Amino acid sequence: MPQDLATVARRAVDDSADLLKMAGGDGTQALVAEVAAESGLPFMVIPAGTCNHFAMDLGLDREEPSAALEALTDGVELRVDLGYAGQRVFVNNVSFGAYAALVQDPAYQDDELGTAVRILPEFLAGHEGPELVVHVGPLTPGGPDDVLVSNNPYQVDDPAGLGRRAHLDSGLLGVLAARAETPAETAARLRSGQPHGLTRLATPDVVVVHADGPILPAGLDGEAVSLPSPVRCRISPRAIRVWVPRHRPGTGTSRGLRSRPARSARHPAGGLRLR
């Protein structure tokens, strides 16, 4: 199904569409965002998934998905970065180790924090999962049990990946690398929102994640995937043209994004809207 979405999007480009729209969650947004970046077409995000973190950081109204369509009549264009994990695009983050274990759990989509409190303490204490080695430019954060690489850094140290990003066009990857604590310490810090043994970096450099096997389980925008090891994560600055309504409830959180008026598409109905 995911590859089908990308195929349909590319077919729309071949059929002379001049705008791509995607109704869905973060993982499906990334699939069509990649096609929009390749084609240079503007892209509209319609938050119709479970969490919609990307839509949140764009300032969109996640409670009223149809409000995103106002970008067609009174919109602005934002140039937004895209992250890559190997050949796969991510709009939010890619996670390894304990973070990846979270998205493998069926309960994660409905209760992110509760699942983190339930899974992370014993996962970290037991050193489960692959042995990870991370290289961030010349730096090598020592022996992390879990790693999260984000498309632009999060504003706060949030090990469950629930934070917000002040910018989506900084040209920087965010890196959170965590070491294990005791189960009680980890659970207490998660509940209080405090960081637990985190190394936090913001970098324009490629981030390389190695594992002690050929395949590395990962969470890509909240979707469970397996990637060939090592995984090279990079950022593509201002890779995508995103159309959003001029007036949107979360504008203050995305005020750092540079914008310009969105030009009307020649054939708005020729865009792609998928569910």
Task: Report on the architecture of this protein.
This protein is α+β, with helices and mostly antiparallel strands. The chain is 23% helix and 32% strand. The protein is built from six helices and 14 strands. The strands form two sheets. Strands 1, 2, 3, 4, 6, 10, 13 and 14 form an eight-stranded mixed sheet that branches. A six-stranded antiparallel sheet has the order 9-8-7-5-11-12, covered by helices on one side. Strand 11 and strand 12 form a beta hairpin. Helix 1 packs parallel to helix 2. It is globular, with a radius of gyration of 18 Å. The chain starts with a helix and ends in a 14-residue tail after the last strand. The relative contact order is 0.24. The C terminus is likely disordered.
SSE blueprint and pairings:
Elements: H1 2-14, E1 20-24, H2 26-39, E2 42-47, H3 53-57, E3 75-85, E4 88-90, E5 93-97, H4 98-104, H5 112-125, E6 132-136, E7 146-151, E8 173-178, H6 183-192, E9 198-203, E10 207-211, E11 215-220, E12 223-228, E13 231-245, E14 259-261
Parallel strand pairs: 1-2, 2-13
Antiparallel strand pairs: 3-4, 3-13, 3-14, 5-7, 5-11, 6-10, 7-8, 8-9, 10-13, 11-12
Helix pairs in contact: 1-2, 4-5, 5-6
